[in-house]
Amino acid sequence: LKIYFSIFTGKKMAYQKVNADQRAPGHSQFLDNDDLQATALDLEWDMEKELEEPGFDQFQLDSAENQNLGHSETADLNLDSIQPGISPKGRFQRLQEESDYITHYARPAPKSNRCNLCYLLKILCTATVLFIFGTVIGYYAHKNCPSDATSSGTVYPQLYQEILKTIQAEEIKKSFRNFIQLYKNEDDMEISKQIKTHWTSLGLEDIQFVNYSVLLNLPGASPSTVTLNSSGQCFLPNGQPCSEKARKDSSQDLLYSYAAYSAKGTLKAEVIDVSYGTTDDLKRIKKMKNVTNQIALLKLGKLPLLYKLSLLENTGFGGVLLYIDPCDLPKTANFSHDTFMVSLNPGGDPSTPGYPSADGSFRQSRSNLTSLLVQPISASLVATLISSVKTRTKNDVCSPLELPNNEIRIVSMQVQTVTKFKTVTNVVGYVRGLVSPDRYVIVGSHHHTAYSYNGQEWASSTAIITAFIRALMLRVKRGWRPDRTIVFCSWGGTAFGNIGSYEWGEDFKKVLQKNVVAYISLHSPIRGNSSLHPVASPSLQQLVVEKNNFNCTRRAQCPETNVSSVQIQGDADYFINHLGVPTVQFAYEDIKALEAPSFLSEALFPRHATKIEEMDPFFNLHETITKLSGEVILQIANGPVLPYNALDIALEVQNSLKGDQPNTGQLLALASRLRESAELFQSGEMRPANDPKERAPVRVRMLNDILQDMEKSFLVPQVPPGFYRNILYHLDEKTSQFSILVEAWEHCKPLASNETLKEALSEVLNSINSAQVYFKAGLNVFESVLVGKN
User: Fold this and answer.
1) How confident is the model at residue 687 (pLDDT cuts 50, 70, 90)?
2) Cα 556 to Cα 571: distance, rounded to the nearest angstrom
3) Alpha-carbon distance 248 to 245, whole Å?
4) 642 and 157 in contact (C-beta within 8 Å)?
5) Most buried in the list 79, 149, 403, 512, measured by CB within 10 Å?
6) What is the pLDDT of residues 536-569, one digit of tens each?
7) Which helix (H) or strand (E) holds 614?
8) If you write DSSP's letter for every residue of 491-515 in order, what string do you get?
9) Partners of 392 in the beta sheet?
């Protein structure tokens, strides 16, 4: 806990200590956010009263000395920079309306004696010399003064471009190649040390290790097997025949072809083809066969794996052979003989669900998270099991793998895993904000976990975050700082269910709920090379489109930006689903992969460095991802007003209720009211705040507090396994409706009435109503503050 205590409780922050004799017993050493709000309002009220008394010039000096006692979004603000009448209802309104207000209390000018002509000439000559001398000094001082002295509260797009232009593809390529040399080390801590050393050399501040002892489900000493009952042939997961030599010579890739946290043991049963395992597939199968304790042949994709496994478990299956149909992959991708890994862990340490794995925490015994025996296998092994040789016809039309219903295949599957407690390490460093150090923009990548498969796409993620840190610190060393604190995190244990990010999030949940304004994900940024695929929260989609259009204009390539809010893999999970934090992720994909069924990315293939360099030989795509992500980070971290769009959330809600969906009349009416409130909020509060001439500091602070918490209204407590709790995110680009309603409608089809549908409708209704109340409350707060000031 001490690791990040300094950041979240005030080390090196802009807070000031309260004198001991002024604090109530038990009060925190530092002002919390509520105290700050009260302090800001009290100071403003005192200022109004002070303006009514003589001696305003003395008050100005006193207030300038004491303005740092409280801290809000306007810390370090100089009173001299505030002009009378900045806001129509600002604190200095009366100074503008009553021109004689100050002169009414002005002291009489002292009487002066009559001077002779010679004395006047001496004064004139002296003043002339001083003026010329001062002009010369001022000219050279301005010429030599670095631009870094500019206040960080002023937004300069050219400043961002100066930072980002130092990012070079060649440097990213060099970092990538250095990082991939580290995966061979069996010690997870050694990789973390190398990342910390590299970040420290770049100047990043207060880099720390955050370690958690967690329960990992690891493969056994030898690969799992599948044996055909009819012939007695034994096969390894990649389709090769079993042999003593093959077992001894099995590579780590083959060893790590397993489902983490699956049940272990042996099951002999009939294989039943359930296709993608949807509710329709299972209804069809149950009409034809008895599925109790049988083995399901399941395709990955279309729906979250955890959800499909829960359906199979409830139906009565005992085991699952999981594979990817070659027809769901691009023609250029040949994974027929490749094995892969999946994790059945929804997130975090399974032994401490919902709470951090701190020393002394109660540990639950959860060696497996399902009663099913689950084994990933290659498409070539599936073809062997169903006696199919070709997957493509002579016309190059792909034929999906399918086991005929009238054929029976009996197999014996053996799953071997070992459960052990291991240490997972996060690397965390930060650049402290100048104006609002208690507001955090989190940038997340992940590094290789020594106990997992040989994948190397993590090196792309780590090289990109390192490249941005290098560019940012070059500017920070010259005196500039962002308004808000930027926290850089390299997560451990991602392959096992985002364990590092979940444990860190649970550890600092109370602080993060209050202070995180955005999460920028750099998880697996290069999955293809043909199409940029940005994913963003609804409130951030306009910013993503704007940055991408600007970037493609510079490259003279401007394809239409298709940004969406869909479920994604990686460590953003906790921040989206438990904290309701606005999130952005840029990644390159293959166009064919985007057209394929969703959730194929749940399979973790051992992608080697050579494959990544084939997709991006000159690392230009890496550079583009770094610059796009960097622009978004800088805009959020440095803009006086958070660049979030409240109205886009309301529009997303309305779009999610379109179509012939039953029982949505009340939801549509409520969504319409939400839109009205969002429009009032957008025009009444956000537009004035974005005008520097209308930017009252207290209003900006209050506005940012509202903007950063908008998505929290859409977190629902209960969802089907594998579904996002944040209902603003859809299952995929093909599904525009609320995912929990889609699932509930599928579930209730065969039933006359269904409690699941009623519960889902209630969850959505409560979320929309909560958001509408939230916007209205925000408007009322602004109105009450303005009335109080007048």
Assistant:
1) low
2) 33
3) 5
4) no
5) 512
6) 999 999 999 988 876 665 554 556 668 999 999 9
7) helix 609-615
8) ES-GGGTSHHHHHHHHHTHHHHHHH
9) 398
3-class DSSP assignment, residue 735: coil
Count other Cβ atoms within 10 Å, centred on residue 538. 27
Residue 61 makes CB contacts below 8 A (sequence gap 6+) with none
Report yes or no: 726 and 577 within 8 Å, Cβ to Cβ: yes
Residues 6+ apart with CB under 8 A from 23: none
What is the per-residue pLDDT across 444-473, written as a single tens digit (0 to 9) for each? 999 987 677 656 789 999 999 999 999 999
Q: In this predicted model, what pLDDT tens digit does every residue of 584-625 receive, in sequence order?
A: 999 998 887 777 888 999 998 876 656 888 899 999 999 999
CA 479 to each of CA 11, 313, 345, 474, 701: distance values in angstroms, whole numbers, following the listed order: 20, 59, 44, 10, 25
Amino acid 550: pLDDT: 66
Q: Give 585: exposed, middle or buried? Use CB within 10 Å, 0-12, 13-18, 19+.
A: buried
Average of pLDDT values for 243-256?
67
Closest CA to 531 of 605, 487, 591: 591
- The answer to whether 756 and 748 have CB atoms below 8 angstroms apart is yes
Are 431 and 476 in contact, with CB atoms under 8 Å apart? yes
pLDDT for position 186:
56
Between strands 205-219 and 417-431, the pairing is antiparallel
Element (H, E) at 575: helix 572-577
The reported pLDDT for the residue numbered 390 is 54
Max Cα-Cα span within the chain:
125
Cα 590 to Cα 605: distance, rounded to the nearest angstrom = 16
**Residue 696 identity (one-letter amino acid):** A
Q: What is the pLDDT of residue 728?
A: 97
Residues 533, 566 contacting (CB under 8 angstroms):
no
| pLDDT-based confidence at residue 14 (cuts at 50, 70, 90) | very low
Give dist(CA 508, CA 505) in Å, integer. Answer: 5
Let me know: does 278 contact 309? Beta carbons within 8 Å.
Answer: no
**Whole-Å CA distances, 159 to 357, 413, 624, 732:** 42, 60, 18, 36
Counting residues of the chain whose pLDDT is more than 70, the rounded percentage is: 72
Instruction: At 154, list the tokens.
Output: 């002023």
Q: How many CB atoms lie within 10 A of CB 755?
A: 11
Query: What is the predicted pLDDT for the residue at 457?
Result: 82
Considering 15-24, 66-75, 499-508, 539-548, the range whose residues carry the highest mean pLDDT is 499-508
The residues pairing with 205 across neighbouring beta strands, listed in sequence order, are 430
Residue 776 has pLDDT above 80, yes or no: yes
Q: 476 CB contacts (<8 Å, ≥6 apart)? A: 203, 431
Q: How far apart are CA 290 and CA 216, in angstroms?
A: 35
What CA–CA distance (Å, rounded) separates 736 from 565? 10
Using DSSP's 3-state secondary structure scheme, residue 441 falls into strand
**Which residues fall within 8 angstroms of residue 779, CB to CB, at 6 or more apart?**
677, 680, 681, 684, 685
Sheet-wide strand order for 225-228: 234-235, 225-228, 410-415, 265-273, 295-299, 319-323, 373-376
**pLDDT value at residue 658:** 86
